[in-house]
Amino acid sequence: MEMAARMMWVSLLVLLVVVVGGILLQIFLSKRESKWPGLVLPAISFLWSLLYLFNLMDTGSVVQNILTALLTVLLSNIPTLVLLAIYWAVREKRRKRSELDKMSIDDL
Fold it and tell me: Is the distance from CB of 90 to CB of 41 less than 8 angstroms?
């Protein structure tokens, strides 16, 4: 029993490290001069969500299949939306800083 509890804590710690590492990597990539590196992780996340969609099984009912597909797309794209929100926030901050730099250069 103690071994199972220890493995659970190790698994949670690994998951936390992966999530925090992914967020820090997204912030780092979003700060790059080019806009494309910041879009790599959201694109990978979106493609991963398509794998979930393509692996759905037919349940027989058309309505149930559509609802299952819709729910799968919505839930599996939550990480994509989080990564895009980080990207937009970092790029907006960068844009504002660039405008302030231009205004300060114009004031000189």
Answer: no
